[in-house]
Amino acid sequence: MPSLIDLRRRIRTVQNTEQITKAMKMVSAAKLRRAQQAVVNARPYATLLESMIGSVLAHGGEDTSIGSNPLLEQRECRSLRLLVLAGEKGLCGSFNSNVLKAGVQFADDRAGQVVEYELLGRKAVEFFSKRGQRTAGSWEQVFAHVEYGTAEVVATNAMRSFRNGEVDEVWILYNRFENVLRQDTTLEKLLPIVPPQASDRVLGGYEYEQPPEQLLGTLLPKRVVTRVHLAMLDSAAAEHAARMTAMDSATRNAGEVLEKLRLHLNRVRQASITTEIIEIVSGATALE
């Protein structure tokens, strides 16, 4: 049975842990508000861009020059690139493990193809570097402040490799932010761009002066950059939400442990007092 000193030491340790987890929860909550607002602001732009591309394709009709854009080229996939977006830190539940496991499973499912990774986030860099995977690039400390310029560089490199035939497909894997309690591991194909279905193409009210191929030459690269940027924003918000939830759970667990330790401490102290009283009474009785 632990002594009173050991129990008091354990109580102080758990109290310190509770204070740390509570502080981390508050910090993540503050960061989440800003990250969530950034995601909410970016999604309508991405949706409208998709609609504009669909509208241009619909106005193009049977124009065969539209399909000549290299970003629309469908070819047999022999090699591909996967952009993996993970967190910069741990202590966020299954946030990192879910996306990393999905990245490994992605390569296992394509055993006959050459898979190379581009890694964003320190956890992704550490995980795949230890496994000796083929990488096209790595980025750390990019989610503390998500910048459009970083997404533009990553997307431009991917488009250049796709145009040059170095890779036949480009995919992106990240945690999509749904709400504070839900972050969905999402796998999306970036390249080649799949044109919207006919039912999704019509967006009334627009008349275009430029030919469709010229418009697509601007809109399609912008679409790839926007998808990468939105995925980075989603991943950043999802990480803060996962950490806030994990630290809230840890704080509650610490409180429960403290309650049990204090109850056990009181029982041990009462037993010690009772034992001392019995010894005193026994000693007094022996002297009579």
Main attributes?
single chain; Pyruvate Kinase, Chain: A, domain 1; 5 helices; 5 strands
Structural account:
The chain has a single domain, classed as ATP synthase, F1 complex, gamma subunit (Pyruvate Kinase, Chain: A, domain 1, 3-Layer(aba) Sandwich), CATH 3.40.1380.10. Helix content is 60%, strand content 14%. It contains five helices and five strands, in the order H-E-H-E-H-E-H-E-E-H. A five-stranded mixed sheet has the order 3-2-1-4-5, with helices on both faces.
Secondary structure topology:
Blueprint: H1 4-60, E1 79-85, H2 95-108, E2 114-120, H3 122-130, E3 135-139, H4 148-163, E4 169-179, E5 182-191, H5 212-287
Parallel strand pairs: 1-2, 1-4, 2-3
Antiparallel strand pairs: 4-5
Helix pairs in contact: 1-5, 4-5
Share of helix, binned? 55-70%
Q: Give me the CATH architecture, please.
A: 3-Layer(aba) Sandwich
Tally of alpha and pi helices: 5
> How many domain modules?
1
Task: Indicate the structural class.
Answer: alpha/beta
Mean pLDDT: 84
Strand order of the largest sheet: 3-2-1-4-5
Proportion of residues in extended strands: 5-15%
CA-to-CA gap between the ends?
A: 34 Å
Main pleated-sheet profile: 5 strands, mixed
What characteristic shape results from the CA principal axes?
A: elongated
How would you name the CATH homologous superfamily?
A: ATP synthase, F1 complex, gamma subunit
- The count of strands amounts to 5
What's a concise summary of this model?
This protein has 288 residues and is α/β, with parallel strands linked by helices. The protein has helices spanning 4-60, 95-108, 122-130, 148-163, 212-287; strands at 79-85, 114-120, 135-139, 169-179, 182-191. The chain is built from 5 helices and 5 strands.
